[in-house]
Fold these 4 entries.
Entry 1:
Amino acid sequence: MTGMIAKEWRRLLRNPATPWALGAYLLLPVLVTGAYLAGMTGNSGIPPQIISQLGGQTLNLIGTWQILMLAAGAPFVAAGLIAGEVEEGTMQPLMAAGPSLFSLVLGKLAAAVGFLLVVLIAGLPLFAIPLLMGGINWMLVGRTVLMELTTIMMMTGIGLLLSAFGRRVGSVALVGVGLGVMLTLGGGLVETTAPERTYTQNELIMRLALSSIPPNVPVVQSETVPAWLYANPLVGLNSAINQSAGQGIFGLPGVSAPPIYRGYPLWQAQAAGSVLLLLVTTLVTILVVQIRTRWRWPVIRQRRRKEGISVG
Amino acid sequence: MIRADGLRLQAGDRVLLEGGSLAVAPGERVLITGPNGAGKSLLAQVLVGLSPGGRVTVNGAPVRGSKGRRQVGYLPQGASLYGYLTVEENLSFFTGLAGLPRRAQAKVVRDLLELVGLIRLAGEEASRLTPGQRQRLAVARALAADPPALVLDDPLAGLDAEGRADLHHLLDELAAMGKAILILAGDADGLAHDRHLILADGALKEVAAV
């Protein structure tokens, strides 16, 4: 397994897009937060007590950005796990070398999740900023990191499954990243473009994930939560942060979360669902690879790559 | 010895081979030629346990599952390698898959590199190798688990005269080491062999020695 992890990490680090993605993941929140702090602590006339109340918003900002990046980045990282072997023509010698399908898929999954975990850990120091600003506690930071972790698990599982079906890494990455963006931002885009109306409970949760709304939005109670809502990590993030913070998150410092949003156990359900989804997608991936092996891996036309490697 | 019985190759609705069998003894080189589309690559995949299509055994043990597949070294068409890994890393990865302990891996990798004449290029990225060097590295990769049998699918494809000569020499050495070698190719192309079979018209026929 360590050999597989080392090989996959080498492949990822050789990808020219990786440094850009990592840079955006770390640099952009640093720049935005830096500018935010500079504005708050300069001659803006904003009292220090208000700044301390903005800690929750900053936590939300960092968590949202990192989850967005991870939701799109995890399928990108996972895209080449199996489709890459098929595209490069190395799947046959790999399978002939004798690893069991289980260890092959698990090794690749561990490589992708491990890589993203390193990325996640590299971004942890950013949480010092909202902690210094105040208004939040370690538990909220912990919940944010947990939601990032479950985002990695869920989206890597989805990316791995897509990779098992694909032949071209580029196509698989495009579909996976698109799916990650749609899962996180899609619902919010629909909400923001829809005409103003009364929101159901679920729509409100969805909307709260992406935008600031006043707490007096009329709410129509709804009894069930649609399953797809659990697949939006931003919904889980807001649920995780707002449940105990209760203020400073919805755009107006000192404004409490709407009663409907308190005590709603969405983030725990989403975390559990993400782990379950990872297990299911891993098992289905093993099944798909097994079936494709019996059908024989499709032979991609031989072509010379830039570096002169021929693929069969 | 590698032995295959009850071979049945099928591509879509077309039956390429029905009821064939073959056996290759240790140290023997058997060449199978045939026209394009005759099913040579499919036969290679059956022999290494990647496709169903017959009962294949090596020294009596079925070529099935993880352990079984390790009994047959496989050089697929195209000699695809991990271009982003060095020559040594390519081999280390496969010796690791073969289940060798980490300490033993370094020695095996070194021995294999010496065998295929790539020891001086151990630190070179695979993407920088010439076609002949890549082919030799792919043969070394097929030997990572020290299998008693080797299946080589079109090993001379894309090689220049020097690359062919190197590979011929390497195959001579492997046969001398007692490996049962099965070579599948479009034509004999000067490949040294002990027996020659032709896969065509749904049958596997032995060519009488001249």
Entry 2:
Amino acid sequence: MATERLFQIKAISGHVGAVPGGGMQSDLEVCKLVDVTTCIGCKACEVACVEWNKYPFRETTFDNTYQTMPSTEWNYWNLIKFNEHQRADGTQMWLMRKDQCMHCADPGCLRACPADGAIVQYTNGIVDFNQEHCIGCQYCVSGCPFNIPKFNSATKTVFKCTLCSDRVGAGLEPACIKACPTGCLHFGTKSEMKELAEARASQLREQSGFPDAGVYDPSSIGGTHVIYVLHDAKHPELYGGLPADPQIPFSYTYWKWLAKPIGLVITLLGLLAIVFHYIFTGPKRPQPEAGREEL
Amino acid sequence: MTTSAEPYGEITQRDFGGFGRTVVHQGELLRHPTYTRFLHWTVAIFFFAALLSGLAVYAPWTFGWLAPLFGGGPMTRFLHPWFGIGFVIAWFFQFLNWRQLMSWTEADSRWLRNIRRYIKNEDRIEAEDVGFYNGGQKVQFWEILFGGLVLLISGLLMWLPEISGRILVAISYVLHDIFALIMLGGIFVHIYLSTIGQPGTFRAMTRGVVSRAWGWTHHPAWYRSVTGRDPREDCEAARRRLSNRERSATSVERADAQSTPQQSTRD
């Protein structure tokens, strides 16, 4: 995408050597704040997302809830997850959570990706897919703790939310933020959003009777560039399966950057061992060998 | 001339015995019939196609340059599983072809205990009880069977992530790597020993034959079974003939006041 020129690059998937221009400029980290307590489930953000990204509206699936479809799709990047939750005191709550790419500080998709340049992380925190470099292996799907990257079987490439990198690069807020009628979505720098989220969470704790209210910004993946204010931060799973402790599989962390290269080097050393065997021990020829007795 | 086709399974013998033609000259023994050679090279082509396309994805930081050979990244990724399927199918027929020959015996355990002597090349000729295949070859055969199964299953799980889910894919990713490396190490040894490491072996997979001397040197029990002769005695007889010839050659040379020893034909 054209945004590569607009943003400073922080990390590139499957890339040999240093990141071009890395560390040359500082950039403010952007952040989307989703205050689930004020979401009314209107789906304006869903519509704004498909509209801005010029995708046709998908067929919806009715499953007796207020959710448009079971999960995000390759051309449907933004979905309000719905859960009817029965609380301990017998009262009911409708939990709505805007599900989309979390733009992790330590992105599992980028770690898993073997294709040079298919996944790029900018210094402002946006993690973007470049489909023209995607080889369609879907390792990113396995690396993501939030089930976000989705495979398009027609193009054999993977798609997900771009945090509207095209809009952000032009100084605009993401389309979903623009469309939100209740002010439950905010966009700004990470530190500002964190501050706003903490203020809202303490308001919920102290004035609204939600003693477990808190901010979701999981440290297991270095934090995210989409953060939530939850009524019950101790049970994020209630909000459409938000993982309490999101983890990148071992395969794409220590295995990939440490064990894999070492294993390859050890195996290739086998070639050296064979050369040495040939030099020091020599070939085994059919017997008897002419001239061998004299050696 | 007796042939080595006898140890092959009856079904293979019946269905593929007439497949192709192998010319066995004087002083040679039939090692591999055409059907076996056909399977071997089919397996080899698929193996290397899968290996090279796999390496491009395994280590893009070192072997990324292999991807253009297969038509670029997406094409490499698309073809790799199909190369794997081709390998598995061709190898399955080779497994049926060889499974009886590859059954483990007491002699193979003895061979494996003495592997140090084999590596150091301390025995001029192999132990009396080494048959059509030695213990090392059988280890490699079963390693490919087991490794191939792990690669097949883990590969299918990674190929169809919609069905397997992200955790199984992540586990498969590691297993696929480990067994690919084991088989890569195995192929180094295999190619070395079948070419420069043991001269005279390669033509067993091209023309399908080996020399008698190769037979009594590397697979004495097999030599005995196909020729009905004693491998050690034949080797000693050949040695006596050779040293007689060398002695007479040396005396001729001495008469001619030349120091270069006569080059005798060798394999």
Entry 3:
Amino acid sequence: MSYVFHLSVILGIYLALSYSLNLTMGFGGLLSFCHAAFYGTGAYGYALLLQTGASQAGALAGAIGITTILALLIGVVSLRFRGDIFLFITLGFQMIVSVVLYNWVELTNGPYGIASIPRPELFGVTMRTPLQYAILTAAMLALLLPLLFRLYRSPFGLLLKALREDEVAAKSLGINAHAIFLQAFIIAAAIAAFPGALYASYVTYIDPTSFTLKESIFLAAILLLGGAGNRKGPLVGAIIMVLLPEALRFLGMPDAIAHNMREVIYGLMLIFLMYFRPKGIAGEFRMTQR
Amino acid sequence: MNLLLQLLANGLVNGTLFAVLAVGFGLVWRTTNVFHVAYGGLYVGCAYCFHILVARLGTPVWCGLLLTVALAGLAGALIEIGFYRPFYRKQTSAGAVLIASLGLFVTLENMIALGFGNELQTLTRATAPALQLGLVMLTQLQIVQFVAGVSVIGVFWLLVRRIPIFKAFWAIGDQPELISALGLPLFRLRALVFAISTILVAVPAALITLDLGADPHMGMSYLLVAAVSVLVGGRDSYCGWVGGAVLLALLQSLVVWKFSARWIDLVTFGLLVQILIFRPNGLFVRQRRVEEAT
């Protein structure tokens, strides 16, 4: 049973990540490859602030603050561009964040990672079992998803959609494209810090390999497969991508092969989807139309 | 000072190999407008092909290299015919082709890992004899790498300049619809582009495998080297691709000299971001006036 709870924690983390990325990628139409950098900054910020003796709430708030500042810096620079160039700049920033996490040993302990991150304590209960974490994850989703869904439907979400469909026409109506995109980028990053902190406290050990370019591509692939720009897409994508290796394991495939096999299947799915259905399984928008 | 010279010499050797990679990548991008992510997968494929030929079948190194190059050309043409051509016929957007190419890359990388394991495969050989050239010392293999890299770039440059069919490559990039109107076989030219590009990736893949070995997950870093070189040098200029690659390799050597090898990627991608912000057309491309842009 604890296996099911473990899976639901992981699924919850990826749901929070893909729904936040959906704001920029699905609604804004900006294909970005640096979401894992924000996820990682959240995780590292939380773990490091706890080490300095901050309270949990303080550490979480600090992690969100650091991620927001990082997103502001990256966003101001990269949002001057659209399309391919935006993609390459975010990819560049993702690599830079990875290198810093890996090599700034004095701060992040480099490749050795940060071990024994304290378990969170809520209402006098220390979270230990997968069940408790599953409840915590559900609480996080219950906090974040309504917020995001409200944003999706709000005038702000509609502005993003308008910019995605026709930026020039939207600008001619007086919409400040840069400001709107920047806000969406920062909100998405700040929300990614929550699952980062949850992940750090759940596995109690983080190292830079969890937040690489590969992870960013994985997150983008969730939206590309499931579809983006609505509420169904990220759910479909995250379920497929997170549960596929588990399904392979049930088919009796050894773990070592199952990982590679999952990647092969997701590669093939990307190819066939781009050919037959470029908007993804349940998407409403073709992220790759430009 | 000697250390700096030595590192610059090593950087130059790496730079010629990077340049070959960049030319293969830039050629596809410039002519067919395909951001060829699968190029990284083809790098891994060529490296493994070479490794199997030499280590398992006992082919002599020269023979292995030639066979790998021949097979690579075939594989490149097949990838255009079986993979990119359907997308072109359907007039899919460049973004969708990029993602599909990423899918092909992931598939290739993991099929190789499934077949040959995730671990590093090295070619066992005696330490290569080193030669003293003035102040710097280079191994025999490095000299082979340098000569091979320079001659591939030189031969390709001559071909581009002298043989008319290669001029058609640039024309495909500018106006693909016009090519058929001019009576040139568009699809055969595209297949040729991909064949040449894969041949160009096979040479450095084999030579680097000889030195460092091969593992299935190295494709991405060489893809990034090629893509960054092309973006830094400028998409529209052959000399830019080569210049970007050499600049990148020399800069990496300087980082090793001044700081440490750990910070190589920081400088590589820092350079990429700087170039994209301040000179999005690339370093070695004549800056166009706004009215000239298409």
Entry 4:
Amino acid sequence: MNYSAPDILPPPSRKGRIFGRHRRFGDRIFSNLTLIFALVIVAILLGLVAILNIDAAPSISKFGLSFLGGTSWNPVTESFGALPAIYGTLLSSAIGVLIALPISLGAAIFLVEMAPSWLRGSCSFLIEMLAAIPSVIIGLWGLYVLVPFMRPVETWLGGHLGVLPIFRGQVFGVGFLTAGVILALMIIPIITAVSRDAIRAVPDHQREAMLALGATRWETIRRAVLPYCRSGLVGATILGLGRALGETMAVTMVIGNAYKLTASLFSPGATISSKIASEFSEASSGLFIASLVELALVLFGVTLLVNVVARLLVWRLTAVKAAGE
Amino acid sequence: MSGTSHLRRKWFNRLMLVLSGCGAGLAIMILGVILGYILVHGISYINLDFLTHAAKPVGEAGGGMRNEIIGSLILIGLASVLAIPVGLMAGIFLSDFASPKIAATVRFAADILAGVPSIVVGIFAYAILVRPMHSYSAVSAGIALGIIMVPIIARTAEESLRLVPNSMREAALALGITRWRAVLGVIVPGAITGIVTGVMLSVARIAGETAPLLFTALGSNFGFQGLTKPIGALPLQIYHYALSPYADWQHQAWAAAFLLLLLVLGISIVVRWVSGRRHA
């Protein structure tokens, strides 16, 4: 639980503050000092939002809303549109979540409901280690191991499921599908950890009542346990989605950096973060930089929304649990 | 209830339980494959030259990542020096001094900040430091990494400080000492394991961060030249060498990945061991 801890800490329960009132001079200085440091966090966040808005202003005023719908990205003619990057971000993240969700859910159910305690601890630990591997190392592995592996897989998919437009087109190895697979690997740990905690929070009387009715273990899980912690599971998924949306290095290394809108999952593409990572340090003109910053602003907005929703869902569950105890 | 339906339920039960087990097995297998591949592949390229020599130009054999190893350590140190005081003091504020309303605001800000993609933090550091100073610099990278560390440290510090029983606070006050001394002398030492755990987790997190370094640290062909100059770092070099067409550089990327992974996983294992002991 260590790795996901900062992501899912619920708001603490109310507790009387012993140190609340303070009269002495030194105490007032100290408590104000801690206040100042705490406000640094708020200031960083506000500063970040302000800087992004200021630096993106040239692009916002030039392109307006058409920035979000535009499909070209041409530094020479200074015409910038974000749609292919937004599409790539959403598509690769969606593939990632679709692959990661069943695996993570199965793993979480196994860890809570089935694994003997000695296995539970070591399995949880191993899965959390996956979360600790730096993104750039996953990218390195992806580039040299996963990409060659994906070529025959994609050829096979194209041969057997080619009736669907998403499985048509030339196979490169790099592309949306490979990026989605990489993202799935990276979010499995967080979805597993948070849904494991959600499932664990279901009180035992739920299970016992269902078993007493003669239900099998799976029926108990399916009808008594999972519905009880549904909001926690949805929260876990959305938290994983938030992680996938902002992921940069690994995706940049395997998505192939092409800027186009296409239905084919085999096609190389770009995400918002890969676009920024590969072009920001070379951007020369003011409008080019402003457009990249506006991309960052869009990414910030989307992840903010996703994270807030996820947190509310996870917190609601833990609040229910706290009230029940 | 008929016999066939009973049998079907039984088999469906088994099937689904096995599938769940497969999920866990698959997750662990993937981890094993990735970890094993990087460790086995990486260690074969590690040698003394890699650790003690600077990078060489394309075409020349040998060369290593001494400068990047030192650079990474400098950046981690810089980020820690900046982030630990802020995070710890904010944690103390949240657990012991804040009124509920301000606490909720700060906590919310910290959680949002923790969810900001690291590349966006990099752009922020670029805008407030690199552009005004007209140079990529170690200090801008240190601040970017520090911003990523702060919310993690603050929230874990708050949680661990809350675990210190209130009776300790009351006992300290009953001795007649001031509140700030009670905090620094009694409460923080009581929560030190959790606080250190949080700091180590945040170090493990930033040690491998690459995206915020792309346009702050930039990378450098030379050794450390001062905090206001560009600086190399292991994750940056992995990225550059991995995408290079030269086999020699790609091998060095694997070696660097091995080293970085060893550091990050080492920290995770120590954290696990320490926090496991605390709970036991």
